Prior knowledge:
Rossmann fold, alpha/beta, nine-stranded mixed beta sheet
Amino acid sequence: MINQEERSVTNLLDFIGDFPRLTTPLAKLEGKAPALSARAVPSGDYVWPDLSGIVRSQSAKVMLVEAAGAVGKSEAARAISQHLNWPLIDSARMQVGDYTLTGQVFAAFGMDSEFLPKMSRGEVGLVIDALDEAHLKAGTSNFQAFLENIAWFANGTTANVVNIFLFSRPDTADLIRAQFEETGLPLDCATISFFTKAQADSFMDSHLARKNSAKPGRNYDVSAKAPVPFGQFRDAQLNEIAGALTNDRVDDVAVVWESVREFLGYAPVLSVLAEFLAVPNPHASLKSDLARDVAPDEILLQIITEILDREQGKFHDNKLTQLYAKLPANVDWPNRSDVYSADEQAVRLVSRHLDLELRVELPASVPVSIRDSYEQAAKQFTADHPFLAGREALNVVFGDFIKAKASIDAKCKLSLTPDPAAAVIGAGPFFARFVHRFAPVVAQSASVHEDLLPLLLDSHISSMHRSPRYIAYTYMQGQEVSLMELEYDDSLFPLSFIVEDPSGVSSFPDRLTRGLILCDDTVVLGTRRQVLVLGPYVTVVAADILIEAERLSVEPGLGTVRPPSILFGRDTVQANYLTGVDSYGEGSLVVYGDTVWPRLQAFQRKIEVRDKASFSDYVHLRALIKAFRQGAGSMPSVYGELLDKRIVKESPVRLKFLNRMVELKIVVRQEGHYYLSTSELGKFGISWGAVVDGSPSNEVLELIARLNAP
């Protein structure tokens, strides 16, 4: 019969409800076949996951269950073994090959055991776990021989039922499917889904209960002791992270769960989150807004670190002893505990995800005599890494982590060819924040190459709240780039970058969907023979704007909100190759500039010389004000040397404005710092956001007049 896929999702417990179940597990010979358990037991209160992508046929006797790394395959295998009283074989604990399965069964139950007759009649089956790890340990040829033994064993039974469950990660699962297809044997398949919200809650409760049993007195009993406030605190934390994942305010994570399930429904993520939730008083923590004390990207990086450490531990458990045993007697390996470190995994993940080659041997400490064996093991482990599904990132968080490492990490640059930064295409909402954390720090800012700016801006825009009340604000002045999200009545302080060796030209080759870009140099939009898309919330202000695209496509806003796209070249707006503009109507595009290409003149608006001068002064004022950051004190501040040498520099206008603001007590000099008095600024009817929002109000212009006064 042709395989048929069941479209509906089925819970694993319901799925195995029709499988034969022994009343009691079969007796196993004591001390024999240590890789086989007559009946396994999952850890703690097991949370049964859902199965998806189920493919069944009438004649299959083997069922392949796959999932990404750390989703919970081994726990599922043990749960099935416990529920059905079927024996479980941990194939990672043995060297698989010809007749391995047969030998394990005979060693465990003896030649005259009732196991084989019961299995033949369809009264019992086998669960075989960790096939991906068995593959890593044995190599492909031995593993294929093991699969042949499994197929022979299953087909030797007379009952027309599934009697063997196989559990594996995706890459090894592909090999298993290919092997069965090649031999013409049917194979049922299913995938373990990420947890639902209810399952995730239960998993965290179970995780904390297990931790409390092992380490009582560390607040791990909080979910059992105070379930209601704990649940509220848990959901507040989940709402924060879901908001970061969806770029929107989330008041009920259950409503958006399907869009965040690949991350928040992932067991390793939930394990780390549960640790954050183990607080003495969840009600007090919720009232004090503790859920917001740790930035979402910091939590994400801690989750990433936990998973990388876990993978290193698995590599050591499965491969290190085996590799060490291959060393010649006169060769030592003193630094073997450092292998497959988090840094090494990052390089290998970038290599696999972006299809780049290693040009150095990692790590350098591996002895030459086992270098080939180590490299094979590391490649196989990376192929089944929990961050990846095949070569693709499992979710946007892991994808942005890998891309950020490729873009900024010195070890990746030294270890891979061609240049990994040049291979990065597209960026998700966490890319800019990860780059900001990974980049070297110069004068309190992250140091990046200017080629990264389009990706940083894309990431910044994609991380924004979707509400039109918010704008993505980007400021570029000299070497400085600041990315921030502004609400019309509020402000968020920015991510600050220093551009290495800036050319004075910032290029944005593909698309600008929303946001305000202010630049004191040249901005290049688009590339030759391409269409540049401008969103309805885009404003670009620069000394010069050079449009390289052959066409502009201006998109309308949503619903009745149709703000124009604005291009403001203080000197020129050039469009040497532009052949046309696709817009949705009059007022959709507004272009300011003395020199404007003919194709854009229909959209041009003239400005008076006085207005240009005022706008130029506004740019100088905004450059000064935006340098201030909110710190531990009551007023925003900036290092005096930073403001004097990198913001004011040799600009007579900025020096005059700074001195006048000191005279007006808007700025206070004290102990090597400048402090911004928002209360004094408020006396002019101005807030910090009003100065930096890109469109100077009358109040701001009046302040500029005061600063320009003799």
